Request: fold
Amino acid sequence: MELRSLFARISVGLAGTAASVALFVLAARADEVTTASFPGTGVIVHDADETLLRWCSVDSLGNPWLRLPGGGTFELIGSPLDGGFANVGDGTFHPFDAAEVRAALADVHFAPGSVPVEIFILPFPRRDAIESAAGPGVVFLAPGVRPIPVEQQHATVVHELGHVVQRALMPDDDVEAWSRYRALRGITDPVRFAADAPHADRPHEIFAEDFRALFGGTLAVANGTIENATIAPPSSVSGLASFIASLAEPTPARLAAWPNPGRGAVTFARASAGARASDGAGPLDVFDLAGRRIAVLAPQPAAHGWTWTWDGRDDSGRELAAGVLIARERGAVRTSVRLTLTR
Reply:
């Protein structure tokens, strides 16, 4: 409790700072932060008291800092006068209510699978970015300078969760998924809808708002709108909800062939996770482009999955001519590979 007293001494009139912060948060909405990912699975919520006592400290000059277990370090605003806020509110910072944060999470109808989320309810805003923010596996919920309405708390929580889900399940290097999303959403213009565009036109923000609107609970969607009013409401976009929901589905393991192209014996392989409902493997059928099955290969267990070996001959022992073949595991989900034989 000594630390709490120290913070109390440096934050006389905090209410004011927080109030203007809260109002600014509503205007600027949530943003993103770059910091270390957090280990573990599921969702962990740290309330303002825990965040203050475990991860906040004061330097020799009396400046408060947030030092996270993942390595992130952020200076906090310890006084409303120090923040240069025009509106000092009621003189006290008002953090998010941990019970409302948990209620907002419980109302989300989306199964993010193994995506870890660690939520820090901040007792003081960060100096470099006073609004709520999200990063890989982490959410910062910034306090307000007046009590934050319950609806706004729910909306912000789910919006920030949307950022975490996007980073984990549809990262920026997933070109195929982003192309599909942009096409669905009608945001294919790379100039208007870019990372450095005005806030409402940033693809990450549009995704986070889509996530909130489609998967948030009643309170999270109480305002009935999204930040960008110039694009179609998420609920009116055919296939959008199912596309986002599909991001959490297990990705079927890919079947590979080596060498490919090959002129003789070929080895097929796939990892064990995600390709089948069970841990087993089925026979591998080899077809020509006319759809005729020319060989059936038995699976063999490997260190991290399954392999099938083939000598390049059909089931009658005849060597096949050069051409293109398709190998497909029987009973598996979308587990096939195109093979080119050369002679």
Q: What stands out?
A: The chain is about 30% helix and 20% strand. The first helix runs from residue 2 to 10.
